[in-house]
Amino acid sequence: MNLREKFLWNIALIVSIIIILWNGWTLFSQHQRASRAIKAYQNEDVGTDKKLEDMVKTLEKSLKKRQELVFRPKANPLELTRVVSVDGLSSNKGQKGINCNTVWSVQDEYQALCTYREKRYTVAVGDSIAGGIVNFISQKKVIIKKDDEIIEFDLGLKQ
Fold this sequence. Notes:
alpha+beta, SH3 type barrels, 2 domains, 4-stranded antiparallel beta sheet, 2 helices, 27% strand, rod-shaped
């Protein structure tokens, strides 16, 4: 063997030793990671993820609170006159379907002309119209109480 062949064989031997050492180190580190993962899996109790349990409990409490909420709407949500536009003389007039536009007095007692569902009614204090009761009538105002809500019609002259 001449010197050149010895040099090439030594280079090949050194490169192969480096490759073997590198592969050995890689396999050793992979084995260490796999061993740690196996130990962690064996020590873990299945189904006891604390973060997940806490999140589920929080969500269940929130859902329970929301289910216990009771809504009491101020106005009847099923009343169609609130959402449906009706063509005709009485559409979009008045409040809660009632419209009062005239007041007169008979022997010091006021009466009002109110319209409900395109029918005219003559009402005095204490009368009932559209499920409400007339509480007060004067020259300039008509006050009706319906569904625990006061409906006020101002009939005075605007200046």
